[in-house]
Write a structure and sequence with these properties.
Blueprint (H helix, E strand, L loop, with lengths): L1 E6 L2 E6 L5 H8 L4 H10 L6 E5 L7 H7 L4 E5 L3 H13 L5 E4 L2 E2 L4 E6 L20 E7 L1 H5 L4 E4 L5 H6 L2 H6 L3 E5 L4 H13 L3 E8 L17 E8 L10 E2 L25
Parallel strand pairs: 3-4, 3-9, 4-5, 6-8, 9-10
Antiparallel strand pairs: 1-2, 7-8, 10-12, 11-12, 11-13
Helix pairs in contact: 2-3
Length: 273
């Protein structure tokens, strides 16, 4: 039911039937390396708190924790089985600065019904979320303000539930110190709500394309023009720089820029033109 691979200097267990995160770690020896590097560089202070919402098996949270050992890392995963694998990966790699929470982030403290994909399935477990059709199980839902109100860098990858997560972060947004890294919602209403909540907190928004593998991957570099990856928004509060040169998001409904010039940081990973 589980497979194992080495990547980013760590050992990862992952569901054998996973079709994206696990196979990418296995094939390339990394996963979303530009995203990991950006988050690490955004965490420029000697110490702080990184919050990973929708952490899956830890493909982002654990490399971050390894490279920022003085930072506290809180990794949240709603899927009970994935949270158990995440905890095993955390302890197996001796990452004492990581806390794993099996919960769903949301607007209020509640008991939510979460679709529990079987770990025996052949599926993209990174797409696990409230939108999936599967038998449901009760899971604790917590607002981010309750989990880590002192967060400095926050990554949110919750498959369309981003607005609900943000509604549970009133105190964090009011404090105006956290850099947000969110997968761009596909739904127009959710996009508008996320955009408005972050702009109301006076954040500047930027585009970030995160390829799953790169041309400089340590194992089997990516070839060809078709590169799998995710579109994301980076939200930077007043007084904090974006760390990297990024393209601004001008409107909630604008499409992700499709030209390489919009992502100059990709040159360091072997992409150009």
């Amino acid at each position: 039911m589980l497979n194992s691979t080495r990547a980013s200097g760590l050992t990862f267990l992952f569901p054998e039937g996973d079709t994206v995160v696990g196979p990418t770690l296995q094939a390339y020896g990394e996963f979303a390396q530009p995203e990991v590097d950006f988050l690490v560089e955004a965490a420029a202070a000697p110490e702080g708190r990184y919050l990973d919402v929708g952490a899956n098996i830890g493909a982002i949270a654990l490399p971050f924790a390894r490279r920022r050992p003085a930072w506290k890392v809180t990794a949240i995963e709603a899927h009970r089985g994935l949270a158990a694998i995440l905890a095993a990966n955390t302890h197996g790699n001796h990452l004492a600065n990581v806390d794993v929470i099996n919960a769903a982030a949301g607007p209020t403290r509640a008991i939510a019904e979460f679709p529990l994909l079987s770990l025996d399935q052949k599926v993209n477990f990174g797409d696990s979320g409230f939108h999936r059709a599967a038998a449901k199980t009760p899971v604790l839902q917590l607002p981010l303000d309750e989990i880590a109100s002192d967060a400095d860098v926050i990554k949110v990858d919750v498959q369309g539930f981003e607005a609900e997560v943000l509604r549970g972060s009133t105190a964090i947004r009011a404090a105006g110190k956290a850099i947000w890294f969110l997968e761009t919602p596909a739904d127009a209403k959710a996009r508008a709500e996320v955009f408005d909540l972050l702009r109301a907190a006076r954040c500047e928004l930027f585009w970030f394309f995160s390829p799953f593998g790169t041309r400089r991957s340590p194992r089997n570099p990516v070839e060809g023009k078709g590169v799998g990856g995710d579109a994301n928004w980076v939200a930077v509060p007043p007084g904090r720089g974006a760390a990297w040169p990024l393209t601004p998001v001008r409107d909630a409904q604008e499409p992700r820029p499709g030209h390489a010039d919009a992502y100059p940081y990709l040159e360091r990973y072997g992409f150009s033109g």
